[in-house]
Write a structure and sequence with these properties.
cell membrane, nucleotide-binding, single chain, ABC transporter transmembrane region fold, 2 domains, 634 residues, 6-stranded mixed sheet, Rossmann fold, elongated
């Protein structure tokens, strides 16, 4: 049994030479901040996330205020029991005060459940808004962004960073209001009971606040490092555990090496997680110990007050005060912890806002042109284009002075050596990139003035690298036309010459194609992509080396499907094998981003220039690949 290995090499930026990949632990570098923007996250911007839900939050605030008032009432009821009801033997008053304490506990429980429900709902809606905003922003980014950014990094921002903010956005707002209200109410009640003991209780509070803020700043730095590390691990998982990654790792004998790399990254994450959780833990523990020891200090202070000249503090007042003091310290500790958590979360918000602030290079005009029926007339008018250069380098032009006219229903083939700008030229028509000079028009309208809906409906692209979702065949085809009927799907598959193969599968059109369509061969995936484009029925078609990775027999089958797809459409073909474009109305030969020859197949052969040389080379490759008949002897 023989196995054939197909290795697919993808370019980083189209028509650019391949660059060495960074090591697996490489990091994505965020864009430079615009002049005048602050490095730190603006808390007001975070608060604006909650603005749509201010009505619900106001209701939560009311519940918090009621809960705080009810909680403060309990120590006063306790004082009345100890100082009045029990010493005076008033059983009726004792029962009433005891029922009051039970009622406060029940009320606090009900208020707590309602607070949790509303605050959690609001927090989850805010997280949903963030996830959706980041995803929508990324959908608007140009193709160049995704050629520079690892998929795992993008996934980590949406999953890990936003997920890490869950506790903050779901409970922080309620916790802050609840604890702050409880502290204020408790302090007021403590002053009402005894101002001297209140001063003793609050002496160390400023020190505690300072310690908590310092711990929060330290954890924020570590959190930033931790999220970068998690993004690196996510990128490794995405790249190495995909079908392509597993295939490459196994065939290159690098499975053990990849495992070691992942283990090293995981080990780094362990260290960061431990540091994050332990940072300032001893200092916070000391705060907890001091607060737990405060009742003893209060008893001592009360004893000194009773033995001096001042008025003695009653047992009921002392017990009620200690109860209030402990009730105040619990929300105080919670406030300090919340402050630490908020500062830690600022690192996560900063990473999310970096994505939300990414500049969108390709945007729709405020009042774009919409064409109801696109004819398909395409023109390149003195077009220049250069990819955005790497930092510290100068932009090099990829296309220069391109002038081409393609009437509706006509066909244009673009040929040239690797790196000549063929694919880049095709990317300018659907605005995957914008020209840096000149213009590209569709039916006489600059494509930059057209609405995105018009462009997407008018232009279909079939590329060399076919992408299929991990879904059924029918779902993959319906991606082009969600409301397509079964009959329309079958008709498109028949036109692409793939229906018979699909019908022969056990589950037919319900067959799962596997990740990236790996359950289908290269030719089958290409015909599925062609069927998907037929279903969309665009008047302009771009074929970017759609058959270059196929063997001769499969190429012939796919070419028949392409011929059916191209009939009656304006077609731009990026050709690798010249045998597929001999019948094109016109052929443009690119060299170093410029058109050096143009004409029909026969006209260009007669010129005996670059195209003729490419044609001769193509014929030699075909002859070399054609099996020769065995020699016979008489």
């Amino acid at each position: 049994m023989t196995y054939t290995l197909f290795v697919s090499v993808s370019r980083t930026t189209p028509e650019e030479p391949l660059r060495p990949e960074n090591d697996l632990a490489s990091r994505w570098t965020p864009p430079k901040r615009r002049p005048g923007t602050r490095a730190d996250v603006d808390v007001r911007r975070i608060m604006r996330l909650f603005r749509p839900y201010r009505g619900r939050l106001a209701f939560v605030g009311m519940l918090v205020a009621l809960s705080s008032l009810v909680s403060v009432a309990s120590p006063f009821l306790l004082r009345a029991i100890l100082d009045t009801a029990i010493p005076q033997g008033r059983t009726g008053l004792l029962a009433l005060l005891a029922l009051g304490m039970i009622a406060t506990a029940v009320a606090n429980g009900v208020f707590g459940v309602m607070q949790t429900l509303i605050s959690t709902t609001v927090g989850q809606r805010v997280m949903h808004d963030l996830r959706t905003s980041v995803y929508e922003r990324l959908q608007r980014m140009s193709l160049a962004f995704f050629t520079r950014t690892r998929t795992g990094e993008v996934q980590s921002r949406i999953a890990n960073d936003i997920g890490g903010m869950q506790a903050t956005v779901t409970s922080t707002a309620t916790s802050l209001v609840s604890n702050l209200t409880s502290v204020v109410a408790a302090v007021v009640a403590m002053l009402a009971l005894d101002w001297r003991l209140t001063i003793v209780s609050l002496l160390l509070l400023p020190v505690f606040v300072w310690v908590a803020r310092k711990v929060g700043r330290e954890r924020k730095k570590i959190t930033t490092e931790r999220q970068k590390q998690m993004a690196a691990m996510s990128a490794i998982v995405t790249e190495s555990l995909s079908v392509s990654g597993i295939l490459l790792g196994r065939t290159m004998g690098r499975s053990d090496s990849l495992t070691r790399d992942f283990a090293a990254e995981s080990e780094n994450l362990v260290d960061l997680e431990v540091r994050s959780n332990m940072q300032g833990r001893w200092r916070m523990a000391v705060i907890g110990i001091v607060m737990s020891a405060m009742p003893a200090l209060l008893y001592w202070a009360a004893g000194l007050t009773g033995s001096g000249r001042g008025s003695a503090i009653s047992i009921g007042t002392l017990v009620a005060f200690v109860s209030l003091q402990q009730g105040m310290f619990r929300p105080t500790v919670s406030l300090l912890a919340t402050g630490v958590q908020v500062q830690t979360s600022l690192a996560l918000f900063q990473r999310i806002f970096e994505y939300l602030d990414l500049p969108v290079d390709i945007t729709e005009r405020p009042d774009p042109v919409r064409i109801e029926r696109v004819r398909g007339d395409v023109r390149f008018e003195n077009v220049d284009f250069a990819y955005e250069p790497e930092e510290g380098t100068e932009a090099k032009p990829t296309l220069r002075g391109i002038d081409l006219t393609l009437p509706a229903g006509g066909s244009l083939a673009v040929v040239g050596a690797t790196g000549s700008g063929k694919s880049t030229l095709s990317y300018l028509v659907p605005r995957l990139y914008d020209v840096t000079g000149g213009r590209v028009t569709l039916d006489g309208v600059d494509v930059r003035d057209l609405s995105f809906d018009t462009l997407s409906a008018a232009i279909g692209v079939v590329s060399q690298e076919t992408y299929l979702f991990h879904a059924s065949v029918a779902d993959n085809l319906r991606f082009a036309k969600p409301d397509a009927t079964d009959a329309e799907i079958e008709a498109a598959a028949r036109a692409a010459q793939i229906h018979d193969h699909i019908a022969g599968l056990p589950d037919g059109y319900d067959t799962l194609v596997g990740e990236r369509g790996y359950r289908f061969s290269g030719g089958e995936k290409q015909r599925l992509a062609i069927a998907r484009t037929i279903l969309r029925d665009p008047p302009v078609l771009i074929l970017d080396e759609a058959t270059s990775a196929l063997d001769t027999r499969t190429e012939a089958a796919v070419q028949d499907a392409i011929d059916a797809l191209s009939a009656g459409r304006t077609t731009i073909t990026i050709a690798h094998r010249l045998s597929t474009i001999r019948d094109a109305d016109q052929i443009a030969v690119l060299d170093a981003g410029q058109v050096i020859e143009r004409g029909s197949h026969h006209e260009l052969l007669a010129l005996d220039g670059r195209y003729a040389a490419l044609s001769r080379r193509d014929m030699q490759l075909v002859d070399a690949a054609t099996p020769q008949p065995a020699a016979t002897t008489s």
